[in-house]
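ugh ok so i messed up the first submission bc i forgot one of the chains. this is the corrected input, ALL of the components this time, i swear. 623 residues overall. if the numbers dont match what u have on ur side tell me asap before i send this to the collaborators (the ones from the other lab, u know who)
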Amino acid sequence: MTTIFGVPTQALFGQLLLGLINGSFYAILSLGLAIIFGLLNIINFAHGALYMMGAFVAWMLLTYVGLGYWWALGLAPLVVGVFGIVLERVLIARLYKLDHLYGLLLTFGLALIIQGLFRNQYGVSGLPYAIPAELSGGQRLPFMFLPNYRAWVVVASLTVCIATWLVIEKTKLGAYLRAATENPTLVQAFGVNVPLFLTLTYGFGVALAGFAGVLAAPIYSVNPNMGADIIIVVFAVVVIGGMGSIIGSVITGFALGLVEGLTKVFYPEASATVIFVIMVLVLLVKPAGLFGRTA
Amino acid sequence: MADTAALDAAPIAAALPTRRDDKALHRLIFVGIAVLLIVAPLVLYPVYLMKVLCFALFALAFNLLLGYGGLLSFGHAAYFGMASYLCAYTAKSLGFSPELAILSGTATAALFGLVFGALAIRRQGIYFSMITLALAQMAFFFSLQAKFTGGEDGIQAVPRGNLFGVLSLADDRAMYGFVCVIFMAGMLLIYRIIHSPFGQVLKAIRDNEPRAISLGYRASQYKLAVFVLSATLAGLAGSTKAIVFQLASLTDVHWSMSGEVVLMTLVGGMGTVFGPIVGALVIVTMETYLAQFGAWVTIIQGCVFVMCVLLFREGIVGLIAKVIRKPL
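and heres the new structure output, hopefully the right one now
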């Protein structure tokens, strides 16, 4: 068997793939956080809870309605997005004139409520969600075995991230969005309905979280705590990348997933903390984050 | 600018400067609290009271940072929890007497506060909160993996020991007396810090950092100092809790503990002297009565968070202060 640095290639590439998968979720989640933060100036603590909700909606669609994975991939983000729009209209919109920190506190409370409700209903043991038939099995590559579903997760999340980036950077809608991020008052004066923009942006940002949740459902079991654990790591990813750049948060997400995978191979004890350690290093060297602008 | 702006509940204290008769009122309240502490064990269960006092001190320490420094740390469980681990470890495995164990736990929290604080104050506003949360999560994973913390079991059956080698704390009444002394000392120290020249500069930085800097104050040194003070006092609370309950566990370092102390401060009133005590009383009581309902505790906590942020930003004591037009 071939080895690299004393590690069997099979294990190395296996962990790298796993890292890439985790990186996909970090990328989609931090992208959503960055978009919401850019326009609404709040950090959405409920992002993890809504990611979990996406996975649960997929599970419910299958269990109660009988709609499979592909339906869930379209419907779950829609449900989560609409839920987010309601949250924004009813609760979050009341805080725009206050300090950003209140937004953090409010969404933290919302995360507790959403998580608590699902925990009450479904317990904490986790519910299985099968890989769709079209994507079961895998490819035997010369250096490793590649499960089809995992390849699909990486491709799907990359596609969504790039599509989002294209919409924001290259379309008229995206131009409005960027303008509203820079100077909402002026954009409003030009006749653009900025409050509507805020609502739709929040809805879209959390719909991305819901989409990530559906992708995650067959890999990790569907569990009320799945969002709480990942959101803190995503916060660290956001601090490392800086929220100034859309593409920056995507690159940072994938890269940190890979680093985490590599750590699992060479020094497994540190794999849970490596991202936080990198955050510390980045804060020491480049406090504004790798892609951040210094204020 | 918005990043450094104070929370809008805080200026209540700033708008009403502390005058001499206010200080007399505060002195009266301190005496009232002392009397209550003496009378309370006649009516209430001492272990419940000790729990309230530990969390009240924790919330007071947290409020020192949030209410007067304007810094929202979302990782205060790290100092509370790491201190409780070190205190439990030195008391159980090294045979320290309770006062030395508490001291070593508190010193640990100070050290963590210094390192984490120095990193976190490099960013402001929302980033500051995220960094403190991420650093605390690192402390959590460390506690989960390190040998001396006992992993999922925590450190159990910590001996209460003999205070100064003489007075046994095994009896709840003796323990209660000791906790009362620590609590009063901590509370008076925080009161002193808030009203010292250092505290005044701190409030100036909270309200307008660029202006304070232009006046020649080194804002980041003041921020670091208050961060370390807050972490140290949080560690004092965590260490005391470890001795009282003879247990240090992962619950104390988990992010939900950080959330809880934010909630206590929010409910009682950010930036008020006495608010965190009331908040701790309310939240601990709520949890004690709701413990049987399992996950509903989390849901109700979340609802209290949402309601406080939307409708009740002054908190209980903040509201009273507004009605009687005196800083509390």
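quick check: The radius of gyration of chain B is 19 Å. that seems consistent at least. The CA atoms of residues 181 and 241 of chain B lie 14 Å apart.
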